[in-house]
Amino acid sequence: MARYELVKRSVALITLTNPPVNALSSAVRHAIAKSMDHALNDPKVTAVVICGENGRFCGGADIREFAGPLRGPPLVPLLDAIEAGEKPVVAAIEGVALGGGFELALVCHYRIAHFKARLGLPEVTLGILPAAGGTQRLPRLIGIPAALELITTGRHISAQEALKLGIVDQVTEQNACEVAVEFALRAVAKPLSSRRVSMLTTPCPPDLDGLLEAVTMQVKKKARGVMAPLACIQAVRAAATMPYSKGIKRESELMATLFNSGQARALQYCFFAQRTAGKWTLPSGAQWNNSKPREIRSAAIIGLGTMGRGIVVSLARVGISVIAVESEKKLLETGKQMVIGMLERDAKRRGVSASLNLLKFTLSLQDLKDVDLVIEAVFEDMALKKRVFQELSKVCRPATLLCTNTSGLDVDALAGVTDRPHLVVGMHFFSPAHVMKLLEVVCGPRSSSETIATAMILGKRMGKVSVAVGNCPGFVGNRMLKPYLDQATFLLEEGATPEQIDKALEDFGFAMGVFRMSDLAGLDVGWRVRKESGLTGPDVDPKNPPRRRQGRRYCPIPDMVCEQGRFGQKTGRGWYMYDKPGGTNAKPDPLIQNLLEMYRSRYGIQPRNISDQEIIERCLFALANEGFRILEDGIAARPEDIDVIYLFGYGFPRHGGGPMFYASMVGLERVLERLEHYHQAHPDVPHLEPSPLLKKLVACGSPPVQKWREHIKTMHSHL
Ligand SMILES: CC(C)(COP(=O)(O)OP(=O)(O)OC[C@H]1O[C@@H](n2cnc3c(N)ncnc32)[C@H](O)[C@@H]1OP(=O)(O)O)[C@@H](O)C(=O)NCCC(=O)NCCSC(=O)/C=C/CCCCCCCCCCCCC(=O)O
Q1: Which of 440, 460, 504, 603 is the right S-S partner for 612, CB 3.0 to 4.6 Å?
Q2: Which residue range or ranges hold the 3-hydroxyacyl-CoA dehydrogenase NAD binding domain (predicted)?
Q3: What is the arithmetic mean of pLDDT over 128-143?
């Protein structure tokens, strides 16, 4: 867990050996304590260097250990002892020094960083704080404002920024460990007291209270209801107002309030769920680690609408040459100008040059004959998409992968019109595609494992979180959205307003309430889908009872809003009003209020007071209930996959963990009881009827999310 060597006859080299990230597990802490003890007591040793194996200094505390009882030497006394030692200790930072790893570097008397290293205190993203002295040492080293920013955001910084801030003493392009050993030899016999960061006086800004207040406001606005950043601010205040011995106690008290909190559990779950989601498997046994992806050097995008443009940008900025195709000259020219502008702005922000030489714009599909992969991003119309796929089949070489960016249409039906169904897969990007991190990779029954592996890895290369899902209407994300949206509109009928429902959801932590989100996405999209599926429009049988369709409750209010030409932000009117078309500042609209009142009186609905609790329960439990059905149907392989989709694609708050984790945190028994209650009150809403899997899990004693897979006996796995 740590290797001890004597190098250059007098330097103790301690190498952390806990792959893959040299996390500070109990065994590693034990080994560090033993090695330090040895080094400090061996008269041959004049200095110590600490480094990590495989070019990675240390990824911090072992997060997996947080779930169980705490064992092994505690970190704070171990680190304090390293700092207090009488022999110089130098940290050789390669790869990463994160969390406890950064705190380990901070107790070393000198820090040498490789120029590619990254440093940071990401604890706040895990719902905790840097409780191994990080909140007390970093402000002493770099001052309150810079330390506050790093600790409350968890941002990783480069070695160069660390040097500028005064965190590291030297940045090197050579082997950091060798440089550190030479450095250590030169440090022997130099006084150490000024190198002990805990003994420094924190440089304090003139208006400390004002600064802390401003940061508190910022944090509350950005991360509504999240506890950890606020605790971080309090800990940093202690560094400014207390001696180290007291500050460290305050840090530990604050950590105790966070450590076992639901938010910390949820955020740590998210960390692992994100990593689990890439690990797809198929019933055939093919999976992420035994399927070889193809190398993609060139790609083509069909359609330069909002989605197509975002996908072109995402591909070009990772070095893939892209041919962009449009059907008309004017559309091609507009799309081209927009893509170039987006790439230039993106490159400027990242301080690199825009990769415009990778782009080609064309009106002819014939130009695609040699590309490795095509992503179709035309209008969401099955007949049109089929025509495109038939054409691609003729034009592209037989080995070209054909992908569709549909948000819910049948991927296998598209595969069926091609000469290569095994090379067809869905790549469902989220808008704007160059910003949103989520990618649903939709596996059709005929998609080959090589095709799936290629789409998954390509997504990762584009900086996306790729999740493999099965092929059904709406896949995972949009399929679950339906019951969620339905509950929101039923609540409108019953007496709530769009702003009340949005506020409840935003207070819960959603980036945007359901009505603001719908206004942003455009209300006409759903309207067209409802018309196509016979739920509204001229094809609806007039004998249908007014608020029922296809044998279940139906709320026509969204159709009425669209009939008035209110399509959301783009028309300046939707569920809210905006100062102009394309405006983003949502204001409640009295016309919507009138529409709701007239609607209720027309149908004799007596509006009632609806509590925020009912809003949250009906919207979120209906959402999770559909998630359970998706698991039963084999459309998602694991609850983690569903949660990752909602975290990265739909603004579900990370500190809630995602809909499935949230359900488990509330308690499956309680979710079942509330769904039964609401279904009894609304028997014509099948989405409120508890799913068989939920009932089964409750009957099995409500196991934790990670164990649900053992209870899912999927008859027809689509994955
Ligand atoms: C950037 C990375 C390090 C690497 O990224 P990448 O190369 O892309 O690789 P990944 O796929 O992300 O990771 C590879 C695998 O490694 C696993 N992993 C990564 N980091 C860790 C970790 N820190 N612990 C465990 N496992 C880790 C990852 O899951 C992958 O596994 P697998 O292959 O999928 O199986 C990147 O990984 C990264 O960013 N890592 C996280 C870095 C981080 O967040 N570090 C901070 C950790 S928290 C910390 O350090 C805290 C320090 C203070 C601790 C003080 C503890 C005191 C406890 C006292 C509590 C008192 C309360 C008492 C209350 C009571 O009374 O009960």
Answers
A1: 504
A2: 299-471
A3: 98
Q: Is 79 near ligand 1, meaning CB less than 6 Å away?
A: no
CATH topology of domain 496-602: N-(1-d-carboxylethyl)-l-norvaline Dehydrogenase; domain 2 (1.10.1040)
- Ligand 1 atom index nearest CA of 100: 50
pLDDT of 662 = 98
Contact present, 413 and 471 (Cβ < 8 Å):
no
Q: Is 131 in the pocket of ligand 1 (CB under 6 A)?
A: yes
Mean pLDDT of the chain: 96
Residue 123 known to be catalytic:
yes
Instruction: Please give the average per-residue pLDDT across 358-362, as a whole number.
Output: 97
Distance 154 CA to ligand 1 centre (A): 13
Continuous segment of H or E residues that includes residue 468: strand 465-470
Burial class (CB in 10 A: 0-12, 13-18, 19+), 19: exposed
Residue-wise pLDDT for 552-579, tens only, equals 999 999 999 999 999 999 999 999 999 9
Q: Which CATH class is domain 298-470?
A: alpha beta
What is the value of pTM for the model shown? 0.95
CA 60 to ligand 1: nearest atom? 50
Question: How large a percentage of the chain has pLDDT more than 70?
Answer: 99
- The finding on whether 1 has its CB within 6 A of some atom of ligand 1 is no
pLDDT score of 719 more than 80:
no
What separation in Å is there between the alpha carbon of 272 and the centre of ligand 1? Answer: 9
How does residue 716 score in pLDDT terms, banded at 50, 70 and 90? Answer: low
- Quick one: DSSP state of residue 328? S
* 103 part of the active site: yes
Residue 158 has pLDDT above 80, yes or no: yes
**What is the ipTM metric for this complex?**
0.98
pLDDT tens digits for 24-44?
999 999 999 999 999 999 999
Ligand 1 lined by 106 (C-beta under 6 Å): no
CATH tag for 612-634+637-711 (out of 1.20.272.10, 3.90.640.90, 3.90.280.10, 1.10.1040.10)? 1.10.1040.10
DSSP string, 78-137: HHHHHHH-SS-EEEEE-SEEETHHHHHHHHSSEEEEETT-EEE-GGGGGTS--TTTHHHH
Fold match between domain 2-259 and domain 612-634+637-711: no
Ligand 1 touching residue 59 (CB < 6 A): yes
Ligand 1 centroid–CA 248 distance in Å is: 22
**Is the model more confident about 418 or about 526?**
418
Map out the domains of the chain as residue ranges. 2-259, 298-470, 496-602, 612-634+637-711
For residue 78, give both structure tokens. 């171990």
Crossing angle, helix 514-521 and helix 477-494, to 10 degrees? Answer: 120
Buried b (16+ CB within 10 A) or exposed e, 197-226: bbeeebeeeeeeeebbeebbebbeeebeeb
Residue 302 has pLDDT above 70, yes or no: yes
User: Can you tell me which atom of ligand 1 is nearest the CA of 61?
Assistant: 50
Q: Hey, which CATH number is domain 2-259, 3.90.226.10, 3.40.50.150, 3.40.50.10860, 3.40.190.10?
A: 3.90.226.10
Distance 299 CA to ligand 1 centre (A): 36
Does the CB atom of residue 151 touch ligand 1 within 6 A? no
Indicate which residue of 5, 53, 94, 123 is catalytic. Answer: 123
- Which residue among 103, 494, 626, 640 is the active-site one? 103
334 membership: H or E segment, kind and range: helix 329-350
